[in-house]
Amino acid sequence: MSSKTNPGNFFEDFQIGQVIEHAVPRTVTEGDRAVYGSLYPTRFAIPSSAVFAAASGLAVHPVEELIAFHIAFGKTVPDVSLNAVANLGYAELRFHQPVVPGDTLSTKSEVIGLKQNSNGKSGVVYVRSTATNQRGETALEWVRWVMVHKRDTELPAPETVLPELAKVVAVEDLVIPAGLDFAAYDFALAGEPFRYDDYAVGEKIDHVDGVTLTESEHQQATRLWQNTAKVHFNKEARPDGRNLIYGGHVISMARALSFNGLANAQMISAINGGSHVAPAFAGTTVYAWSEVLDKAEISDTVGALRLRLVATSGRDESMTLRTDEGKYADGVLLDLDYWVFIPR
Amino acid sequence: MSSKTNPGNFFEDFQIGQVIEHAVPRTVTEGDRAVYGSLYPTRFAIPSSAVFAAASGLAVHPVEELIAFHIAFGKTVPDVSLNAVANLGYAELRFHQPVVPGDTLSTKSEVIGLKQNSNGKSGVVYVRSTATNQRGETALEWVRWVMVHKRDTELPAPETVLPELAKVVAVEDLVIPAGLDFAAYDFALAGEPFRYDDYAVGEKIDHVDGVTLTESEHQQATRLWQNTAKVHFNKEARPDGRNLIYGGHVISMARALSFNGLANAQMISAINGGSHVAPAFAGTTVYAWSEVLDKAEISDTVGALRLRLVATSGRDESMTLRTDEGKYADGVLLDLDYWVFIPR
Amino acid sequence: MSSKTNPGNFFEDFQIGQVIEHAVPRTVTEGDRAVYGSLYPTRFAIPSSAVFAAASGLAVHPVEELIAFHIAFGKTVPDVSLNAVANLGYAELRFHQPVVPGDTLSTKSEVIGLKQNSNGKSGVVYVRSTATNQRGETALEWVRWVMVHKRDTELPAPETVLPELAKVVAVEDLVIPAGLDFAAYDFALAGEPFRYDDYAVGEKIDHVDGVTLTESEHQQATRLWQNTAKVHFNKEARPDGRNLIYGGHVISMARALSFNGLANAQMISAINGGSHVAPAFAGTTVYAWSEVLDKAEISDTVGALRLRLVATSGRDESMTLRTDEGKYADGVLLDLDYWVFIPR
């Protein structure tokens, strides 16, 4: 008998300043682009077309930013969230450069915050994770915090450290991809005529379309990212006998659905925050709506929109985020706040 | 609130001569070949093997012709058939050159026919669509006609224009791929010994094998082609709560099943016509049979067979296309008429 | 009417010394790596990362050995096991060199054993199969034996020939991939600290994690390998109306699950034997455990472990292979005996 298997880290295993080098590096390929395209109804012109990407000034044909995010994120699961009760939030996610086929991503995380819960049975761990490519350059970075079980509830609580996190990534911190230039942007090919100036802060867009989730598809997606959380794959791992769908699956689905009304919101630059408000299961029909939260001019041809992307179970044409009591409205699955580049 | 989402075109939005440039260009990759191979039991030697393709005189390893068709077709859906009642037919489809990984396809359509239905609520739209690659060369073209709802049933009917369409693509209009030469064709590696001379006009082939359709697979296929028709993905979009399977999924399934008996029918050159006779749903077990409709010598080493490919729900060993009354027999899902190249 | 379809070979169609050249050659691509990664929770560092592979001395980034096996094996199905009652066993499987994207594999088989069953209705066929790449080099070879129906039960039995098969591939027959060197092996990136010396003969490892099988996924995998056995795809092909899951799907699932405890068991070198003990169906939750059967030093930096990999339906923490009566324990799906390279 041996005990070589990974039990995951518990709350008391984390210490402020600790750096975790996550396994396993992963090379991105054109295969990832195709599988992603089979799982999400994505049509954004830059990741869809090498020619469109080149016409936008990009030297190599990038994959969707969320492919890079899911791969980089997946690496942190075995070390950070295998014993997580819940994924509580994201902040300060920034893409530093497009990820292209051939890139190999590795992720490291630093523990930047700890707070034991008052029940003494669990605590919240904050980590800043950085994914680097084969040249050692940062591809993306982000902070997330998760609630993790304690192994030994008798252990004393660590000193509480709460990191200061930006509520929104500042416009000056957005990294514009090298060469990105929308001067020659072809709106007809991209699918919609709307540019930066056509979107107003406060505007809401009902993306209309819905997708009914299936068991195979969310598992295929989650595996593609080498995300090992048991609850997504093993029906015996949950008392209700259902597979919980990886929150990232809902993010990608909602982002893809948002094409219808935001076709020119081409490249995600940053994620300011996000909440997986309710779980999703096979059979759920996911819809999405967006709200324009802010705008910023980035270059002569590139603008940025700050968008709230809301995924719902069933369509909510009223696009209601919260009830009068301030709680999330029934049916809300995801509330994501992000910056995206769009032609001016 | 905004109205930036695409409501699709209604019958009255189409005019004779109108040219629609469809979004979004799409780069074909080796990933598409792999995903296609995971969704259909395809074994044709040229798309399966780069070595076999090279030995057949092809400079680059083409993907299945139907990959090119589905991608090119998918682009037309948001503009042509989002409000379609039914896809009524195809004609004059020709592949002008093989599509290879790295090619980026774009599609344009010209409205070539209009006929309002007598009920005044809908009409038939005929479009000729052309897919071009990144060099501006035609990859394939075809005509299809769809029945589309009117938005405003009070509007007067447009002048009826019915295009003249060839019932069959003429042999002299078939485009032989550059370099194609079956002189060194290896029948053992290809899977069957039968060549051009072994097929007789009128011969029918029961392809024997069946595949039970699943919900995930048809959705993955249809998404891969960026086909946005709601009925394929959203169980809430149909009164019966079932996802209608994209007709192209049945075409690809039947074509793959036809390997068993037509292993050397290597490259589709043209589609003369086709009808999606009945809808297919997850759980349907698809079988296929073929009938040799015509033959033609193309070069010293290449022949062409004109084939009827029939997909059925459940196996019909009698291979009955129509009842005595001339209606399609029960169980027929697809009736496709196409030209394919085969070694002489 | 024609009879061009492949009925498969029956027992009396096989003769000692007969060589069968299987259709259809198949080019391996990066797409296969991605689809495989979407179907199995695999994380082994060499196939996951081109950088890690290069740091291990490999000139090109290999795909998982099981991808090569499944493709090579799939080619034999239409000729060898289309009419098989059961796949009885494997022996002497050796990988001669890593398979990389761009390689085109073809498979030949030689009949090396025949034994009619006493009931006269079927017999056992032994074939040695060899897969070669586009340079004519051997990629892998193996022996398997299957029980095959007779077409004509009146025919006399052939002379019984039973091949002598090695119970275990000898250490000196293992082929070390050109350049393989674990001197610079990064255990943190690979996911676990355990090296050759950390594993003891007799040690058992419960791999902890489980995956609930779905209908789409096993079909996608099996199609990807161009495996045409009807029972995997056609619910009408079995009296119970269920799709039998390809045994290789369970092998790949168990191998992927074994990462947790055997993360450094990087490259499969040989398969000594294997039994598909019980059938698996959609809904089965697969777990795995391993036992170290033997060890061998291969080079200064490379060791080999001989492992038993057991897949079970439901987790068996007792890791019981057989009952006191010597029968396989309830729940055992697969018993596989293989050699794998691991850093010393």
Walk me through what this model shows.
The structure is a homotrimer of 344-residue chains. The first copy, chain A, has 344 residues and is α+β, with helices and mostly antiparallel strands. Chain A has one domain: Thiol Ester Dehydrase, Chain A. The first copy, chain A, has eight helices and twelve strands. Chain A has helices spanning 30-39, 45-48, 50-55, 65-81, 187-190, 215-224, 247-257, 259-262; strands at 19-21, 26-27, 84-95, 104-116, 122-132, 138-149, 204-206, 211-212, 267-276, 285-297, 302-313, 332-343. In chain A, strands 1, 2, 3, 4, 5, 6, 7, 8, 9, 10, 11 and 12 form a twelve-stranded antiparallel sheet that branches. In chain A, helix 1 (30-39) runs antiparallel to helix 6 (215-224). Chain A starts with 18 loop residues before the first strand and ends with a strand. The model of chain A has no long low-confidence stretch (mean pLDDT 96). The interface between A and B is large, with 50 and 40 residues.
Please give a quick description of this structure.
The structure is a homotrimer of 344-residue chains. Chain A has eight helices and twelve strands.
